[in-house]
Design brief:
Jelly Rolls; 28 strands; 19% helix
């Protein structure tokens, strides 16, 4: 089984574990492992998988400008049927309940050199059924990253690691806290786990301050949760072709491919991003979501004002060169719905003729202008896309992908070199021919 999305987005430096018949790699970002030097891409994919069971994720189709969902049953290596969570129902956790059965009750951790550790063996209580969530109630004496490892009888070990996902860390000390672990997506090894045959659970805590000794930790218990079913009606099925089914989102409200936005809505992290995205009435054609921890070190508070600038004209020469003309004064937010990359550069005050000029000299000129760049005004929005803030003064903007300019220049130099060598070679042959006739 495979679920994939057909996106217009080009994944510039996106490498994936599997490709299938040469399709765009965007087709597989929601099922296969992601390998990318683009942290925005991998972060969004991981968050999507994590929240697929507990949230309505249809809004993401609009942000990704994806207008089809394709379900395949003929692809090997995918064991989870995730389609029902997208088109039928999702199941948010019901929460920790003091009256429910607990596993691994009232165990104090053993403190080692680098961590605190609880190992809980399940002898007669290993049949957990098919829980969607595990609620772990613990108490620690200092802020810590929590790691949970569940082992089944088949040697599978799903692991939730607070050093990789802050949702599995604890800052509240000396009072019980609950950490919720989704079984559908751990930070590692979450496929093919047999929760009807759980053999053991290991829980470890690492101090957030590496200079401090490991925290004291007590486990009050683990509780199972099957979630609360919430029906959704977000997709229309268009057709079935053999083992392939195609669906289309009903409320498709795509973000601009390249254009202006009037408002930027900040959220703290990708967990909040999915919570707000599914519950809000945001107009993604005119506003966006900015995840603060994807923009560390940048002044996101400068994006708090609304913009009143309008688009007069917008064109793109290719998937790596976009031009826009705007009207109105003051603050403006320019969005490009391509995976964030610092090599996307914005150039001000370019006419359409010079922006799309195809000569070698024009490309060299644009390459030189693109080297003047303020990355502090370049933000990640909608979980993956590019946004530039400009305080005004320009009526036209050109966005280019700088490595493509280098490639274009290289090709043109190669073409001119071939032409020149051909002319010189032809001239030499002509001289040689004339000498032979004499």
């Amino acid at each position: 089984m495979n679920i994939f999305l057909r996106c217009k987005i080009n994944l510039k430096d996106f490498l994936l574990y599997h490709l299938y018949n040469g399709l765009d790699s965007a087709s597989y970002i929601f099922n296969y492992p992601v390998f990318s030097n683009n942290s925005a891409a991998s972060d969004l994919v991981m968050a999507f998988r994590k929240h697929m069971t507990d949230s309505s994720t249809a809004f993401l189709f609009s942000l990704l400008r994806t207008n089809y969902l394709v379900y395949r049953q003929d692809v090997a290596g995918i064991t989870k049927n995730q389609l029902p969570y997208l088109i039928k129902s999702y199941f948010p956790p019901t929460g920790y309940s003091s009256g429910s059965h607990l596993y691994c009750k009232n165990i104090e951790a053993t403190i080692y050199q680098d961590k605190s550790w609880v190992s809980c063996t399940l002898e007669d209580e290993g049949n957990w059924g098919s829980p969607l969530y595990l609620h772990l109630q613990i108490e620690i004496d200092k802020p810590a990253y929590i790691e949970v490892l569940v082992s089944d009888g088949n040697g599978r070990h799903p692991r939730w690691d607070g050093r990789m996902d802050p949702a599995y860390s604890v800052d509240v000390t000396k009072e019980p806290v609950v950490i919720t672990l989704p079984t559908s997506f751990a930070t590692e090894n979450y496929d093919d786990v047999d929760y009807t045959n759980v053999k053991s659970v290991d829980i470890m805590a690492y101090s957030k301050n590496p200079q401090e000794k490991p925290p004291e930790m007590e486990i009050f218990g683990i509780q199972l949760d099957n979630g609360k079913e919430i029906p959704v009606d977000e997709f229309d099925q268009l057709t079935n072709i053999g083992k392939l089914s195609i669906y289309q989102p009903k409320n498709y409200n795509p973000a601009p491919e390249f254009g202006l936005l009037s408002k930027v809505n900040p959220v703290n992290d990708l967990d909040e991003f999915f919570g707000i995205g599914q519950n809000s009435d945001l107009n993604f054609s005119n506003e966006c979501l900015l995840v603060s921890n994807q923009n560390l070190g940048k002044n996101t508070k400068s994006l708090s004002s609304d913009s009143q600038v309008e688009v007069v004209e917008s064109n793109n020469l290719s998937d790596t060169r976009y031009w826009i003309k705007v009207r109105g004064g003051g603050l403006r937010y320019l969005i490009l719905s391509e995976w964030f990359n610092s090599n996307w550069r914005i150039i001000k005050d370019e006419t359409k003729e010079t922006a799309f000029g195809n000569s070698l000299l024009n490309d060299v000129r644009l390459l030189n202008k693109s080297s003047i760049h303020d990355e502090q005004q370049h933000f990640i929005v909608n979980g993956y896309a590019n946004l530039w803030k400009d305080d005004g003064g320009s009526s036209t903007y050109l966005v280019v992908y700088r490595p493509q300019l280098l490639v274009d220049i290289g090709w043109k130099i190669t073409e001119y070199t071939i032409i020149l060598v051909s002319i010189i070679g032809g001239f030499c042959l002509l001289i040689h021919y004339r000498k032979q006739r004499k």
